[in-house]
Structure to design on (132 residues):
């Protein structure tokens, strides 16, 4: 894991912070450098609500290296209320409960542990919306 990159992306990973275009109001996630023809101040930091709906999902039964202890688990494509789509694990949900258009909310959870002397990596996952 590249610690410098992890540090730079901490706002996006822990707070779900994207960007909003000051002129058009467009919201994007994750944050990105200005496009050609834009200035540094075209995009401002924007805190996303962390709420959205399941757009699509899949059950992972054969995980990639480093995630062998997790299967089976749900990977989802979430359309956030502000418009951007993100890929994330769906947690706190049985496999048979997942459904298209299910309302969800972001939670911060452990993503991986890089060993006894390594970094514990946290980031966003989603869970079914807890009614308030």
């Amino acid at each position: 894991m590249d610690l410098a990159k992890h540090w730079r992306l901490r706002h996006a990973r822990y707070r779900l912070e994207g960007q909003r275009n000051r002129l058009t109001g467009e919201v994007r996630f994750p944050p990105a450098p200005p496009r050609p023809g834009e200035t540094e101040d075209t995009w401002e930091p924007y805190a996303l609500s962390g709420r959205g709906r399941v757009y699509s999902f899949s059950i992972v039964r054969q995980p990639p290296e480093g995630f062998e202890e997790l299967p089976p688990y749900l990977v989802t494509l979430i359309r956030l209320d502000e418009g951007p789509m993100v890929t994330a694990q769906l947690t706190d949900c049985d496999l048979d409960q997942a459904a298209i258009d299910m309302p969800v909310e972001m939670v911060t959870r452990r993503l991986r542990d890089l060993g006894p002397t390594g970094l514990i990596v946290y980031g966003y996952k989603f869970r079914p919306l807890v009614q308030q």
The first strand starts at residue 17 and ends at 21. The mean pLDDT is 84.
